Amino acid sequence: MTTPLLDVMGLSRRFGELAAVDDVSFTAEAGRIVSLIGPNGAGKSTIFNLLTGYLPLSRGSVSFRGRRIDGMNTCRIAELGIARAFQIARPFRGLSVRDNVKVGALFGNRDNRGLGVVDEALALAGLTELADRPAAELTIGQLRKLELGRAFAARPHLLLADEPLAGLVPAESEEILASLKALAARGAGVLLVEHDMPAVMKVSDRVVVLEAGRLIAAGRPEEVNRDPRVIEAYLGQEAP
Ligand SMILES: Nc1ncnc2c1ncn2[C@@H]1O[C@H](COP(=O)(O)OP(=O)(O)OP(=O)(O)O)[C@@H](O)[C@H]1O
């Protein structure tokens, strides 16, 4: 069996008495999109914070490309090739789109520096036409693309995308999904946290479902979609 790109085992994080993430295990593979879904408070953002070294684990292990990364700091983890795209972009507003994306290239995967990285990231994120525009002039949809472009410029082996579709109109969502698929087609893994269930079901190779910190189901979209535990977890919420 080949080593998965990301191998999360028994991941746990407590905040005082609260088990925000409780013994969660899953993998992510190169070239695949894996979505982490679950109702509000399920632990999705906490998992991103644990994987990126922003928060220390209470228990468990995280291996990336065959080496343990739990306990490493955020900079080291970024250098090894995990990039994170936040829901709320905070660009350098006075800089152009191109220069913001260039900044992303400075902080990324150390194996993959080189000419063309910025242009490639701009193209992949659908930003080529906007490259000379000041970031301060962008719409929400364009800012979301910039956030992805900045992450793409890091040439990640794994992208953690945090609610990239939130607040977007369908046409914008389609463009973002196309960018994520294009990144995966180039061989990167994508870990997606997203509340837009039709989009998740359409774009994901695999879906991991969390509820109150625990993993309750994992599998192909059509499998988790009909899993009674998943349906129950979403009762009263938008059904997946
Ligand atoms: N720094 C913190 N201190 C204390 N509790 C926290 C902290 N961060 C998260 N939590 C709690 O941990 C649980 C999981 O939160 P988390 O933000 O990971 O959920 P989520 O699945 O990302 O939710 P949402 O979909 O609303 O973003 C929640 O009960 C939350 O209140």
From TrEMBL:
A single cellular component GO annotation: plasma membrane
The domain of life is Bacteria
Question: For this protein, what is any one GO molecular function term?
Answer: L-isoleucine transmembrane transporter activity
Q: Output the CDD domains linked to this UniProt entry.
A: ABC_Mj1267_LivG_branched (cd03219)
Pfam families the UniProt entry points to: ABC_tran (PF00005), BCA_ABC_TP_C (PF12399)
Q: Which Gene3D superfamilies match?
A: P-loop containing nucleotide triphosphate hydrolases (3.40.50.300)
One GO biological process term is: L-valine import across plasma membrane
Which residue numbers delimit the ABC transporter domain?
A: 6-237
Question: What keywords would UniProt list here?
Answer: ATP-binding, Nucleotide-binding, Transport
Which PROSITE patterns does the protein's record reference?
ABC_TRANSPORTER_2
- Name this protein carries in UniProt: ABC transporter ATP-binding protein
Query: Could you tell me which species this protein originates from?
Result: Vineibacter terrae
